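Input record (one chain):
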Amino acid sequence: MVLWIVLAVVLLSLVFLGLVVRVLLWRLAGLREAQVELQAVAARAQELAQTAQGLQAHAGSMQARAELLQERLAQVKAHAGSIKPKRG
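The corresponding structure, as predicted from the sequence alone:
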């Protein structure tokens, strides 16, 4: 009689352990899916960061160009002010 009780407890323990393992595997699968999604998001973020760096470099170039154009415009205005119109 005691042997049957011990066997029943062991069998129930194994069933319970099997269920726990099954739940853990199910949760692990969910975590793996989340990991794949996070890796995709991280790759997209890296692409956006590289694009932002390129845009920042382009903005710096455009700013330098605008400054040069402003200097050139000031020179042209200064030169235009010094020219006397001809009267005919």
